[in-house]
Amino acid sequence: MKEKRLLAAVTALLLCVAIPFSALGDIKARNTEENGKITETAWEDDNGQPAPGPDGYCFVRYTYKQDDVFEKYYDADGRPFRVYGGYYGRRVQKDGKGNITLIEYLDENGARTLNRKGYGMMTMKYFGFGPVSTVTYYGLKKPIIVPELGYASILYEYSNRTMTSRTYRNEKNNPIDIADGYASVKQKTDKRYRVLSVRFDHADGGHATGSDGWFRCEKNRDDKGRLVSVKYYDESEQLTDRGAGYAWEGYTYEGDNIVKVTRYDMNDRIVADKDGIATFVREMKDDRIVRESFLDSEGNRINNSLGVGAVQYSYDLQGAIEKVIYLDTEGNTARCSGGYAGYRDTRDEDGATVSRTFLGVDGTPAETTGGYSEIRYSYDETKTLTSKRYYDLSGKQVKAE
């Protein structure tokens, strides 16, 4: 298999799939700019020769027209290259806020073509306060149901800034049941827009079971708006454990910053998971978990599935987790079963993780039991993960996915 991949990397045009390049050493991207805009990205090997990049092509060339950016892919000889997604290029359109509003997939002649998933274009509209309001998929001309997805569009509705419904629709904008067995997700909120319940419905409005095995989730709150319990019900409105081993969670509070979340079965008895954890003790700050530890059904400290007694979190300015540190049951920094004591994430401007560096007990980069110290992530324009590359402490790539 390795020999075939190496041959494919040399003759990239002959293979219309994304090509792993871990066996080729470090491949670097070189950008060419004109008037402050990138007009070409060329992937090169250590000798400066064209080499397939993470998506298989050697060159991507960009042209700009008003709000549109056209990108086309080429092999080492400058011939059009068909990527794994089934297209030779894309037209990407953004609004004034930088949101992607359109992605069109192109053939070697620049005309719309169907990608590997069976659609030729997707459009996105947004609410003024940020979130997506609709996503629609098109064939060569009209909206179509994407076979892999089972729907043609998604409609989101909000109350204030809280989502109240997400509905999957056919090409005529009517609700349609997707493969997971439902057509819509609806959230009921209180006057302060806090979620009180979540439910799944079929296209005809009947009760449906979501992918996690429940029809309705009830979130009961106290006079301060704090969660008291979260309970799950089946389509018959009966409490259910969804195959998860517990039917509901109870919340108790200690002071202003500590909340204990205990799991119960359908008979209201405390129940532990496969690791023996019955209660999660969460230390909160600004509505975020900054530390979480674990108790068994008797209230004793216990390790989680990673073999650590507590997890400590820190966040970036946007509220995303930036650093995770593992502790033992006594509060000391400790290595987990994977051989590391935590990790640090780096994110792009859209909040997507672009790298994860694993840390030792001393807080410096460390190698995991898998033989790598860092993972780097690549995405397409829709922020769908396209590849993962693994590096050891010396910076050498050890594998790719």
Question: What is the fold's blueprint, element by element?
Answer:
Layout: H1 2-10, E1 28-34, E2 37-44, E3 59-65, E4 68-74, E5 89-94, E6 100-106, E7 121-126, E8 132-138, E9 153-159, E10 162-169, E11 184-189, E12 195-201, E13 216-221, E14 227-233, E15 248-254, E16 258-264, E17 279-285, E18 288-295, E19 310-315, E20 321-327, E21 342-347, E22 353-359, E23 374-379, E24 385-391, E25 397-400
Antiparallel strand pairs: 1-2, 2-3, 3-4, 4-5, 5-6, 6-7, 7-8, 8-9, 9-10, 10-11, 11-12, 12-13, 13-14, 14-15, 15-16, 16-17, 17-18, 18-19, 19-20, 20-21, 21-22, 22-23, 23-24, 24-25
List keywords for this structure.
single chain, 401 residues, mainly beta, 25-stranded antiparallel sheet, 25 strands, globular, disordered N terminus
| Major sheet attributes | 25 strands, antiparallel
Mean pLDDT: 90
Amino-to-carboxy terminus distance: 14 Å
Number of helices: 1
Helix content: under 10%
Total beta-strand segments:
25
> What is the element string, with H for helices and E for strands?
HEEEEEEEEEEEEEEEEEEEEEEEEE
Query: Low-confidence segments, ≥5 residues, pLDDT <50?
Result: 1-24
Structural class: mainly beta
Radius of gyration: 25 Å
Q: Roughly what fraction of the amino acids lie in strands?
A: 35-45%
Shape: globular
